[in-house]
Please model this.
Amino acid sequence: MKLTPEYAQRLFETGAFVVFSGLPTGSEVGIDGDVHLTRKFSGWKMIPPGLHLVTWSIPSSNQQTPGIQIRRAALRHLVGGQTYVLKYSAEAEDLVPNIVDEATGEEIPTTISPEHLRALDGELAAYPLFRWTEWKTLTEGIEDADIVRLLGNSHKVDSLYESPADDEVIHKGEVIDNTTGLPATMTKDIVHEGQLAYVPFDIKRSWRKGAVGEEVTTYSRDKSWLLCHVIKEHFAGEPARLLAQLQLAFLIFINVQNFSSLLAFKRFLVLLSRSQRIFFDDELLAASGITNKIVEKLYTRLFGILAAQLSSLPETFFSVDLAGTGMQDFWQDELQALCHNVGRVPPAGTVQDSQASPMRESLSRLKAVAMERFQLNLETARFEEAASEEELEEGEDAPVVVEL
Model:
């Protein structure tokens, strides 16, 4: 789209602004994944209303560790005409809210006059509109409450933030509150700075408390009981909130280089991809208050989210950026498991009806993106083949998990 003077003027008047005050020269800044080094820079103008991720990395003044920079970010829903202002704090070596309530510590919105904004115009970059369509797809469904639940009222995160749900943190002896995902010693309604409140669950212990024998064996391989439990107990029966944490984990890992978010993303994807019985076990669903329609909607959206995420990654992501990490094999295995699970679902109605279902159409798009972008060849087994394989897995020679 050509940015005519008239269109640019309309965007200036109806869009949002992000304004930096005192930003040091040589800082790295970005919005929605579009990152640049700065010289004389005061922010962005003409920002479309919606959810945006602003990132920055301030040059370190620590001469003992030259070149080491921590990437920080803020996730904000911006409305037309709104101005989000951050100022540089030399003490914190960070961008902080312009005005803070001394009593509560909460940010107070800053009002900037149109005259002042026009005076800054030469130092404000235009929002990269070529990224907007892709960014909307990546963030669709994320609500402000999801961000506050994960990051707290600051809406901020950096590359060093950890999650109490990380295996490494839990193993240090912290007692985790099953509702908040935070250490039990914390106040439930507060997310402490420096921590990410990803929902905790043990993907390796995916059966109900008190289960024995065959039930343990079944749900050690199949994560369906755990998925239903997480949706019911941690997300109040709303799968969309689970998907929002998956989306946030991906965005924070990719754009902020936060390792805890990578761990969270992998946990969520394994939970969703390794759940088979959730597609056909009516008794399991009924016990959790989940319907087949909810499951189909959940996975239809999941396939769309994963397709958008794969589309957003650079072609060198697996081969260069994350070479040697096994991430390409991880994606291949989990996406293949998803395809296999859908192959287990008995076709409903006519062949034409089953082929045209929203879930299968969404999966077909995901398979096409995976192949086109990264040559991930995903096969969906026919229902007869999947059923036959299930019989072999569940036969008298099937492996048995014994809990010691």
User: Anything to note?
Assistant: Residues 159-393 form a domain with the Serine Threonine Protein Phosphatase 5, Tetratricopeptide repeat fold (CATH 1.25.40.550).
